[in-house]
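Feature request disguised as a bug report, sorry. It would help if multi-protein outputs had a clear separator. Right now it looks like this:
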Amino acid sequence: MTMTVLALSDVAKRFGPTIALDGVNLELRRGEVHALIGENGAGKSTLMNILAGSIRPDRGEMTVDGQGYSPTSPLDARERGIALIHQELSLAPHLTVAENILMGLEPASWGWLNREAARRKSLEVLASFHHPEIRPDRRVADLSIAAQQVVEICRAIAAQANIILMDEPTSSLQRDDVAHLFALIRRLRSDGMSVVYISHFLEEVREIADSYTVLRDGQSVSTGSLSAVTNQELIVQMVGRPVENLFPSRQRLAPDQVLLEVRDLSVPPQLRHASFDLHAGEILGVAGLMGSGRTEMVRAIFGLDPAQSGAFRLRSKAIAARGGSPTLRLLQGLGYLSEDRKGEGLAPALSIADNTTMTRFASCSRWGWLDRTAQRTQTEGWIKQLGIKARNPIQPARTLSGGNQQKVVLARLLHQKADVLLLDEPTRGIDIGSKAQIYEVIADCAREKKAVLMVSSYLPELFGMCDRIAVMSRGRLTSARSVDDWTPETVMLAAIGGKEPEAGVAANETL
């Protein structure tokens, strides 16, 4: 029988009146990938932080290789062979790639840093990922979110940990990088390394993990071999109820009024050309690989990035593509949800109420003064509608789990009452139960004749939610076609630069 390298028994943690963990049991064996599954707020990240030495548990026992384990700091945990890859990146953006990868492990002689040795060591780790954007001497702040995620993973590998804790490690990776990561995990597993792996994608869990533990409301409710359980059984264990239909049923209607027209938009070098119409009551999906120009297109429409050329019409009225600003776009009835929740989506130090109402303070103010009672009441309504797990509206947003933070970002967008919603990866880091809620909210927006543009890397989401799909490839957006004219295969073919399906041709005849 394979040796147990990590064992948890009755681990619990409380933050004031909030119970984060209330009796977690888990066993990790040598050379095993163990999936930790659960809804947002179930306690997964809290458990990871306890294992990594960032948080002390209130009760429970932990052992590593049969010896008692009670780390006093992340450094203590690393010295015991445990490294954590955070869901929210924990890099030093002002430092180089090599300095981040080797932080605390810097090769030195007589107190002086050996930069050449540091470069060689970082290149050895980076060789696992064929990512030309990442160079040892490049500043981390200048990298894309996906590239920063790779650096985070490489830092844990460089520490030569025996146990690696991975909290949503693929959330910002495109498929090629995910394949490289999985190949690396398999190699580490064959060398006897053990991995605790958190992911909301059950198909991803099945691809890489051997066993699982489900957390619900801070307790471990099920554990076993993944081969012995179905996805539906896992979902029931996660949310405590069956989730029959992940995507809401929607009646596709004839195209309504065009709310937004975009013509010949370009934001060099990432976005070369994009043209499309967005109708009232429509959900238009945009697929494509990360770095293809999807995010740059949405940011330019909202005025966050300067457009080099292009023309917009909003409700048949021409508006300037160049010189726009987010403030102006808010006044014009556009709303934006960023893919970068931590960097742009939230003001983490502010309350849930402030984050929810900040783009429309007029709803809860009089004569320029904020009415805190009205603000709190309005926020409580959104907390209830979106199922945000929070103590109260004045709780700081930074204290919420990642998925609940994403719901706060969506609550702000809905509170704003925009007519045109620009959603960039709206369900990234969201558990299955919460996804179903958010999909219903997005569908409700379409039923209310709002126009929705949804950028997503998750193809089932696009096919389950959208009326039409367009694909971004190397900075160029294909024409938008009915979802019935596409298949996952033809979307991927278009994304890598292949031919898009012809209008009116059955999707399964295009390959």
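(second protein starts here, but nothing in the output says so)
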Amino acid sequence: MKTKFAAITLVLASGLIAGTPALADVTREQVKAELAQAIRTGDMPANGEQSRKLNELYPHLYPAQQVQAGLTREQVKAELAQAIRTGDMLANGEQSRKLNELYPNRYPAKQVQASLTREQVNAELAQAIRSGDYMISDSGQKCNEAHPSMHPAV
């Protein structure tokens, strides 16, 4: 009984983590179906402190899991060529810096695009001033928090 309860709890918890609907939206049949699938595929933790799943410990007892296709050989080659061309590769040594950071004159400059126009920034600034949504001290206090009577509640 404990094992069945633990398995159901595990399925529910893994469902929440994976982004399934809230507990109120999950029916008893759905939980039973998920448990049955987990038992069938061995996608359940094994007993003990190994923190491994049954299908990892005993792969010959369970069907092979589907492997998702990655990048094709041509795509990888194209990415490598792009990285070589732009210097977007780690340099040798322990610096953990890219080639285009160490030798910027050897590689084309990266194009930087502004995400907001000047007018949009000015409009945001005017709104922040009206609402008091700006910092007034190093402590991180905003003007509308320090002087609530000066700014109308939004």
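Even a blank line would do. Unrelated, but nice: The chain has a mean pLDDT of 81.
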